[in-house]
Amino acid sequence: MAVVGLDRWNTNEFALTPGNATPVAPLVKIKGVASEKHRGKIMFTDVYLSSLNGWQWVLTHFESHVQYVSSNELVEPGVPTGELGAQGFLEMSDSKQAAEVAAFDALGWKTPATATGAVVTAVVAPSPARRAGIQVADEIVGVNGTAVGSDCALIRAMHSIPSGSRVHLSIKRARISLKGLISYRTVSSVTITSAKPPKGFGSSGCPGVTGAGSSYVGVALEDGYSYHLPAQVSIDTANIGGPSAGLAMTLSLIDTMSRQSISGNQPIAATGTIDVYGNVGDVGGVAEKTVAVQRAGAKYFFVPEVEVATAKGAAQPGLKIIGVTTLAQTLHDLRALGGAAPQPLTPPR
Length: 349
Known about the structure:
By secondary structure, the protein is α+β, with helices and mostly antiparallel strands.
């Protein structure tokens, strides 16, 4: 009886354990500009995220290098934990796009951007959006026949529509493959019935929008963009989600398109989000990632500045932790370690 009870007991808790430290360069394919593989390794690192039942909760407490997080720390209020997989793959897709833009920018290229719509990052349950079958990564491009090019444009279009109204949304439906790759169908129309905003629902923060508005859809959003890159880039991150590989992917792309190794042909690892402007953001599971990169033989581990103490607390002798806040700072620190300055094989046009 006790065994059955523990097996069925849902702890509402997740465990983070060390994953792998993976060299990025073998995963990269570039068409349109010259590239070259250097001897050094630039690695990204991941963690395993496991939902725990009673027995798993008991067993993992006997293991080292485990971080426990509750579901409330992983998803927004009202969003089911079943969304985590799709959210992680969307974050990885966004991270790869930002890494490509930041890398080309660091090599002197310009990458014009076009606003494309409002991308769904979470769907509340229950909500009008969930009842209409709207899913994470879907991109909303129109409201009642009017085009919207950003999350705030969508919010402004919905702001004055009375609750209980039938609203026609133009959506590019996302298809997420079993390996986590996202592709989009052609635009289709979805009709929802808007609801009254729930109690405590605050202002969006969008310019020109005051208050919570009249209608509630039940989605979280981000701006969608298309960037005009000078080359076609592919990074194979099958079955890996989340944004934390952003910095490592950016460094590897720069290295692959540069004449000499920006790492000085040394084994390095990096974790941290990246945006298109080259800013490095904090991530989760840094202690567990530190264990993974140490096992992989990295000499240097670049982490977001705010997480240096966490990484140092998990590091053993032989691994140097370096805190960074921007891509430019990371490249500067790599030069101090013997790496070359980025010099593109193909001159920017």
